[in-house]
Specification:
Blueprint: H1 7-17, E1 30-36, E2 45-46, E3 55-56, E4 66-68, E5 73-74, E6 83-91, E7 98-110, E8 117-118, E9 124-126
């Protein structure tokens, strides 16, 4: 994902850069899956039910404004159809603020019994 920052993240980043308020820290980040991709203001339709739960992301080192996940991100086996996953959101640890969003390269339908996995280094975010 390129510069798909949410409005929330853009505001907090400017506050931090210009020393306007104490820095916001999101804590650990989690990956959310969407059947309708969110946008800059949030929204979208997040998967729900069927044992779905957001998953923690382990990040590697930042290099030239880019960072990728350093470990696989594995969601639990779906106990009901999750639908067609079209996008993702990266959320703060408290689950109240979406930080980043974007579409999947290719949509993926998750049926009962299937597992959605993002392999190491396949989730990349950057600032350019």
């Amino acid at each position: 994902m390129a510069n798909n920052l949410t409005n929330f993240t853009e505001t907090e980043l400017l506050k931090w850069l210009l020393n306007l308020t104490p820095a916001y820290t999101p804590g650990a980040t989690k990956l959310a899956l969407y059947t309708v991709t969110p946008g800059e203001a949030g929204g979208g339709t997040e998967v729900s039910g069927g044992s779905y739960v957001r998953q923690s992301i382990t990040w590697g080192a930042v290099t030239s404004g880019t960072v990728s996940n350093s470990a696989d991100i594995t969601f639990p086996s779906a106990t009901a159809d999750w639908g067609t996953i079209t996008g993702i959101g990266i959320w703060d640890n408290g689950g109240t603020n979406m930080l980043w969003y974007g579409p999947l390269t290719a949509a993926k339908t998750i049926a009962t019994g299937e597992i959605f996995k993002v392999l190491s280094a396949n989730l990349t975010v950057s600032l350019d």
